[in-house]
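Q: Please design a sequence for this.
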């Protein structure tokens, strides 16, 4: 609360600045720095629902966040695949998007079908629409939405509205899960704020999950990292609830430590699991559903390192009671 009220966050979208100003936040218009008073944070937290349901194309596939369940998803938006026919690494295509949706649909322990890879062979402006369409066509489970920019976000809403039977039906039975990542340290980007506004308007849930790196984009200590991460999540929730009171959100975390040798994110580190535990506790404190990261590794091949790291951070997230665990097949490769 002290960070939000005294340091503030940078907000790079005009509508968000407007609603924050009207709600009583102190806004430095020139530098786009917003200082949010304690009372406003608490008011917005009261508006955020403690539980809500996300539906698949087949309404029997649903996830109720906030009721104590732990759901598992896949990784999202990978840009390369290992081709099973040639054995070569290559950029991902729309055919790969389809294949991963079908795989997710067949895996009984995967509850949610994320956009596992990106469709790099279609125009960038239309990519998210293609990916969401392939999701609805190839799985009956719940799927991701897309929140980077107003036009792309609206494209996904229009597709989901057709599947749901209209915009009002989509509001009643949300079918898209938005992913919102504040830019650490303490920034909210224009494109994501546009998507957050649209998803809040149409009652589609959004998980708000920073990726702070201890010693890089966040404080070196885990305590300091959690303070910064919490400020980023809470400020995102405030904006969502000011856009549309009652907008469904998840308290999220993708944070870990920075690999001081390479400058990369150490997703295989034990600290990833420790941050998940803290995020689960904070989400319960604020009476919100939670999102965490599990099944991640820095191994370059599926070896014993990969097995140990994935099992370790996935188990920690599940035992902590994270409601929605993402990245259950993530390999972080460098070099």
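A: Design:
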């Amino acid at each position: 609360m002290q960070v939000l009220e005294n340091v503030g966050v940078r907000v790079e979208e005009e509508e968000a600045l407007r609603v924050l100003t009207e709600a009583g936040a102190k806004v430095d218009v020139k530098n786009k720095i917003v200082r949010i008073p304690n009372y406003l944070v608490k008011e917005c937290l009261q508006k955020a629902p403690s539980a809500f349901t996300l539906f698949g194309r087949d309404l029997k596939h649903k996830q109720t966040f906030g009721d104590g369940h732990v759901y598992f998803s896949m990784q999202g938006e990978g840009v390369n695949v290992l081709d099973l026919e040639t054995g070569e690494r290559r950029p991902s295509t729309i055919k790969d998007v389809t294949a991963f949706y079908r795989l997710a649909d067949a895996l009984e322990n995967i509850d949610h079908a994320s956009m596992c890879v990106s469709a790099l062979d279609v125009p960038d402006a239309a990519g998210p629409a293609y990916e969401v369409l392939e999701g609805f066509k190839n799985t009956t489970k719940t799927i991701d939405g897309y929140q980077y920019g107003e036009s792309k976000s609206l494209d996904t809403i229009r597709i989901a509205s057709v599947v749901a039977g209209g915009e009002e039906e989509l509001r009643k039975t949300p079918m898209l899960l938005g992913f919102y990542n504040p830019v650490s340290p303490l920034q909210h980007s224009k494109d994501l704020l546009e998507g957050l506004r649209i998803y809040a308007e149409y009652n589609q849930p959004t998980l708000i999950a920073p990726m702070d790196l201890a010693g890089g984009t966040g404080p070196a200590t885990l305590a300091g990292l959690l303070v910064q991460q919490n400020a980023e999540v809470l400020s995102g929730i405030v904006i969502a609830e000011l856009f549309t009171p009652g907008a469904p959100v998840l308290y999220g975390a993708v944070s870990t430590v920075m690999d001081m040798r390479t400058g990369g994110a150490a997703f295989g580190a034990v600290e990833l699991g420790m941050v998940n535990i803290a995020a689960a506790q904070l989400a319960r404190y604020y009476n919100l559903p939670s999102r965490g990261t599990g099944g991640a590794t820095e191994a370059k091949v599926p070896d014993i390192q990969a097995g140990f790291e994935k099992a370790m951070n996935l188990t920690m997230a599940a035992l902590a009671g994270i409601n929605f665990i993402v990245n259950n097949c993530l390999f972080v490769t460098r070099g």
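Q: Thanks. Anything notable?
A: Residues 222-243 form the longest helix (22 residues). The chain has one domain: 49-331.
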